[in-house]
């Protein structure tokens, strides 16, 4: 062993035999036993999450991108199906696997059993295993004592090695010395910190597993309660859809951890934040990884050609489409148009025979997409109404949390928007909505009521546009927000000679302004509102409601719970609502005219969050969702 270790260097390709780590293998039966044990612990966060999947609240889409399904049966892994990222099959979570846990022998001496290691990560492992089909019967875990910062350092090191030196390739002298320097630094630091196993051992085992086994992912598990474990994916294609991770509970066992702490670093924000090892391919590693869509019968190796993957859009219930695959042919070039299950339309088969064979398993999740049932209700509607109703049935209603997440993503690294841009478009939608419903000749005087958050900013932008459209807005901001953006927006309004009530205007002053107002724009509270209503709004809201003036509410009527609506009965009841980005859960029962605005969501994001937004026409910034009466301008 010592002799072999001499050949080891950070730049040459190690082999597993060089590793001094002990490998404990948990076979299928042991894994099954662990899953059974895990199921005894119901009523935890995972159980709730899976229940939510069942109610189609998460990780589900009635269209073909459905990634997790559970339609029937008990809470048991065999009833929960995952769409695999590598073959597109819908397979049950109970397809067990073999776990190889590499650990230092001192851990065994310390009586650290490897069973709890696997048990702690079981829901995540089940999910990951279920997400992968090809070559993933084996899961590799390396157990360490790394702390958070150390885990990050080690992650960066592996990324560097895999990018430039994997396979013993030569790289620029500057990179070589960088790798050697990082290697020495990590050895030195981690040895000093007495981390087990020492860094060279983690390094050997990690790269040797990559080299010899080429798994879709490797987990570096940390035994430290103050740390997280890292998953390394070996190709971007192997990173599961981030929809899966939305709301997936964090598994951190440390009771003192912060909210965003995770047991395993799941790539919650998609490929961009996943630890992906960029491995140079070529020579014996020259095989390009390619997504294969395969026949859903688990024993069949037939895959479908790329061009036929768009089957769902083009073929209507294609039970009869031809099949040319020889299912015994294991080559990836085997290609067929496939038969789509005519009921759920979620899976494909190479032949009727395999469809029949898979039926016992597939029947557990096979169901008609829910939206199809709606058609019956719609008989007798006009074509336009049908389209509108269809829009309402399928549009996604957002929880407060999801609305905030979308907002953050729009302004995050991927979305790259600034708040000014979003607010400008949001405010423009509000002004356009008011203009569409309330004619400026009859409803010239608009009281724009602004709150202390971003919605107040939307109101200020709307006031400016309304002035441009020929209205006479007055701003009322009883609690001006402190951010610079509100001050700038207010200054822009001042420059246009838009009147403002002083923030400390008395209730009498507000009452008198309301009496000389034609229509109110309610831009007080948005998706961050949490009841009960505090001063000064506890006096302002009832006054607005009792004014009997028409009201246009922005995003959600002020005072309504974002998810439960006007259950406390203290909110404003508007005539018109303009939802931004997508409607919120709380407005499902809203009866007035409902518009959608905030035309800034990129298509990719709309699809990722399954928003099912309606089409905006031409250059319009708004689209009407429902109509209680024929569209008309008042
Ligand atoms: N992507 C999008 O869709 C975009 C959305 N945009 C818009 O942003 C809106 C969300 O903005 P947001 O997060 O700043 O929150 P929002 O609701 O305006 O104000 C919260 C503030 O209200 C207050 N407050 C809360 N509860 C209270 C109570 N009970 N009683 C009294 N006060 C209470 C509290 O203030 P505090 O008391 O802390 O000073 C809190 O900070 C969203 O709905 C949409 O209109 C666009 O601008 C951009 C793109
Ligand atoms: K509002």
UniProtKB/TrEMBL annotation:
<feature type="domain" description="MYND-type">
    <location>
        <begin position="324"/>
        <end position="366"/>
    </location>
</feature>
<comment type="similarity">
    <text>Belongs to the NnrE/AIBP family.</text>
</comment>
<dbReference type="GO" id="GO:0008270">
    <property type="term" value="F:zinc ion binding"/>
</dbReference>
<dbReference type="InterPro" id="IPR004443">
    <property type="entry name" value="YjeF_N_dom"/>
</dbReference>
<dbReference type="Pfam" id="PF03853">
    <property type="entry name" value="YjeF_N"/>
</dbReference>
<dbReference type="InterPro" id="IPR002893">
    <property type="entry name" value="Znf_MYND"/>
</dbReference>
<feature type="binding site">
    <location>
        <position position="455"/>
    </location>
    <ligand>
        <name>K(+)</name>
    </ligand>
</feature>
<feature type="binding site">
    <location>
        <begin position="526"/>
        <end position="532"/>
    </location>
    <ligand>
        <name>(6S)-NADPHX</name>
    </ligand>
</feature>
<comment type="function">
    <text>Catalyzes the epimerization of the S- and R-forms of NAD(P)HX, a damaged form of NAD(P)H that is a result of enzymatic or heat-dependent hydration. This is a prerequisite for the S-specific NAD(P)H-hydrate dehydratase to allow the repair of both epimers of NAD(P)HX.</text>
</comment>
<feature type="binding site">
    <location>
        <position position="558"/>
    </location>
    <ligand>
        <name>K(+)</name>
    </ligand>
</feature>
<dbReference type="GO" id="GO:0052856">
    <property type="term" value="F:NAD(P)HX epimerase activity"/>
</dbReference>
<keyword id="KW-0630">Potassium</keyword>
<keyword id="KW-0496">Mitochondrion</keyword>
<dbReference type="InterPro" id="IPR036652">
    <property type="entry name" value="YjeF_N_dom_sf"/>
</dbReference>
<keyword id="KW-0520">NAD</keyword>
<feature type="binding site">
    <location>
        <position position="522"/>
    </location>
    <ligand>
        <name>K(+)</name>
    </ligand>
</feature>
<keyword id="KW-0521">NADP</keyword>
<keyword id="KW-0963">Cytoplasm</keyword>
<feature type="binding site">
    <location>
        <begin position="454"/>
        <end position="458"/>
    </location>
    <ligand>
        <name>(6S)-NADPHX</name>
    </ligand>
</feature>
<feature type="binding site">
    <location>
        <position position="555"/>
    </location>
    <ligand>
        <name>(6S)-NADPHX</name>
    </ligand>
</feature>
<feature type="region of interest" description="Disordered">
    <location>
        <begin position="311"/>
        <end position="337"/>
    </location>
</feature>
<keyword id="KW-0863">Zinc-finger</keyword>
<protein>
    <recommendedName>
        <fullName>NAD(P)H-hydrate epimerase</fullName>
        <ecNumber>5.1.99.6</ecNumber>
    </recommendedName>
</protein>
<keyword id="KW-0862">Zinc</keyword>
<dbReference type="GO" id="GO:0005739">
    <property type="term" value="C:mitochondrion"/>
</dbReference>
<keyword id="KW-0547">Nucleotide-binding</keyword>
<dbReference type="Pfam" id="PF01753">
    <property type="entry name" value="zf-MYND"/>
</dbReference>
<feature type="compositionally biased region" description="Low complexity">
    <location>
        <begin position="314"/>
        <end position="337"/>
    </location>
</feature>
<dbReference type="GO" id="GO:0000166">
    <property type="term" value="F:nucleotide binding"/>
</dbReference>
<keyword id="KW-0413">Isomerase</keyword>
<keyword id="KW-0479">Metal-binding</keyword>
<dbReference type="InterPro" id="IPR032976">
    <property type="entry name" value="YJEFN_prot_NAXE-like"/>
</dbReference>
<feature type="domain" description="YjeF N-terminal">
    <location>
        <begin position="403"/>
        <end position="613"/>
    </location>
</feature>
């Amino acid at each position: 062993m010592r002799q072999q270790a001499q050949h080891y260097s950070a730049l040459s390709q190690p082999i597993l035999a060089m590793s001094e780590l002990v490998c404990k293998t948990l076979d299928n039966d042991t894994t099954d036993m662990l899953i059974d044990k895990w199921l005894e612990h119901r009523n935890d966060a995972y159980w709730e999450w899976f229940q939510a999947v069942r109610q189609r609240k998460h990780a589900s889409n009635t269209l073909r991108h459905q990634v997790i399904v559970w339609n029937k049966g008990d809470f048991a892994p065999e009833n929960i199906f995952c769409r695999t990222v590598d073959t597109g099959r819908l397979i049950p979570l109970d397809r067990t696997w073999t776990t190889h846990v590499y650990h230092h022998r001192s851990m065994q001496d310390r009586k650290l059993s490897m069973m709890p290691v696997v048990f702690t990560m079981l829901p995540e492992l089940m999910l990951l295993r279920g997400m992968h089909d090809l070559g993933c019967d084996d899961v590799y875990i390396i157990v360490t004592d790394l702390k958070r910062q150390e885990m990050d350092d080690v992650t960066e090191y592996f990324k560097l090695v895999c990018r430039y030196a994997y396979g013993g390739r030569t790289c620029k002298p500057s990179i070589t010395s960088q790798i050697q320097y990082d290697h020495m630094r990590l050895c030195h630091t981690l040895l000093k910190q007495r981390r087990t196993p020492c860094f060279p051992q983690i390094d050997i085992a990690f790269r040797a597993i990559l080299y010899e086994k080429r798994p879709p992912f490797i987990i570096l598990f940390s035994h430290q309660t103050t740390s997280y474990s890292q998953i390394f994916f070996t190709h971007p294609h192997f990173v599961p859809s981030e929809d899966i991770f939305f709301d997936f509970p964090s598994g951190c066992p440390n009771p003192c951890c912060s909210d965003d702490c995770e047991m395993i670093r799941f790539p919650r924000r998609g490929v961009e934040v996943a630890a992906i090892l960029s491995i140079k391919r070529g020579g014996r590693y020259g095989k390009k990884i390619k997504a294969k869509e395969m026949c859903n019968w688990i024993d069949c190796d037939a895959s479908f050609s790329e061009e036929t993957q768009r089957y769902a859009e083009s073929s209507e219930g294609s039970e009869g489409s031809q099949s040319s695959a020889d299912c015994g042919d294991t080559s990836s070039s085997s290609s067929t148009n496939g038969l789509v299950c005519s009921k759920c339309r979620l899976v494909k088969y190479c032949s009727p025979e395999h469809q029949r064979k898979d039926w016992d398993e597939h029947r557990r999740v096979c169901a008609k997409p829910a939206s199809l049932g709606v058609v019956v209700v719609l008989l007798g509607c006009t074509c336009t109404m049908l389209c509108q109703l269809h829009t309402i049935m399928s549009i996604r209603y957002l929880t407060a949390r999801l609305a905030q997440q979308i907002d953050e993503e729009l302004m995050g690294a991927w979305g790259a928007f600034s708040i000014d841009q979003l607010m400008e478009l949001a405010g423009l939608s509000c002004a356009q909505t008011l203009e569409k419903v309330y004619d400026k000749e009859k409803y010239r005087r608009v009281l724009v009521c602004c709150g202390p958050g971003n919605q107040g900013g939307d109101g200020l932008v709307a006031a400016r546009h309304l002035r441009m459209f020929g209205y006479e807005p007055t701003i009322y901001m009883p609690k001006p927000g402190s951010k610079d953006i509100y001050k700038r927006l207010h200054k822009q309004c001042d420059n246009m000679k838009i009147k403002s009530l002083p923030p400390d205007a008395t209730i009498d002053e507000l009452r008198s302004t309301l009496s000389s107002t034609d229509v109110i724009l309610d831009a007080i509270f948005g998706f961050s509102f949490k009841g009960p209503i505090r001063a000064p709004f506890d006096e302002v809201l009832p006054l607005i409601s009792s004014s009997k003036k028409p009201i246009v509410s922005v995003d959600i009527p002020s005072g309504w719970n974002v998810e439960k609506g006007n259950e406390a009965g203290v909110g404003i009841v508007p005539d018109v609502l303009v939802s931004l980005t997508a409607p919120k859960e709380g407005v499902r029962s809203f009866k007035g005219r409902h518009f959608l605005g905030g035309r800034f969501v990129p298509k990719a994001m709309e699809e990722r969050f399954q928003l099912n937004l309606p089409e905006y026409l031409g250059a319009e910034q708004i689209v009407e969702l429902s109509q209680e009466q024929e569209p008309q301008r008042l």
